Amino acid sequence: MAKKVQRPKKCIKVEEARELHDNWCKKRGKGLQKSLGFEDAREFHWTVAEIEEYLAYVKQESAEQGIKNPGIRVYMGSYSQSKCKMGRGYSTLFFAPTGSRPGAGKDGGDDENNYDIDAFNSGSSGIPPKNF
Questions:
Q1: Long-range contacts, 34-42 (Cβ 8 Å, 24+)
Q2: pLDDT mean across residues, the chain
Q3: Residues 28 and 50 grouped into a single domain
Q4: C or N terminus of the chain, fewer CB within 10 Å?
């Protein structure tokens, strides 16, 4: 029988996630919509398999570089209108690998971006965006 996976320490309850999303919509989403003239993307989707595939790639490439504890930093981005399928320049999120080279003495949020490994994007988003 497979060992049960424990709930990660950094998980948040659904209520907290809903509050975070509601706060973003009220404090930032309305201003962006007014400024842009359209409702921007605010939620993004990848399958678990896609994320696992990317994480395996980052682990493999990092190990080859001697990085023992790689991380992932999430960035907000925006497509240029010419590269956006809808011609508007919607927002996007992308993952960037991080990690300290051996002996760098850094940990966690201070890790440098690892520009020797490709970032990850190409998720999908609801139009209109889905509320949490």
A1: 36/88, 38/88, 39/128, 39/129, 40/90, 40/91, 40/129, 41/90, 41/91, 41/92, 41/125, 41/126, 41/127, 41/129, 42/91, 42/125, 42/129
A2: 87
A3: no
A4: N
Q: Do 52 and 97 have their domain in common?
A: yes
For the chain, the domain total comes to 2
Q: Is 129 a domain residue?
A: no
User: pLDDT tens-digit profile of 7-62?
Assistant: 999 999 999 999 999 999 999 998 989 988 888 888 999 999 999 999 999 999 99
Per-residue confidence (pLDDT) for residue 6, from 0 to 100 = 93
Q: Which domain holds residue 20?
A: 14-43
**pLDDT per residue as tens digits for the range 84-128:** 666 677 888 899 999 976 655 555 557 899 999 999 998 788 777
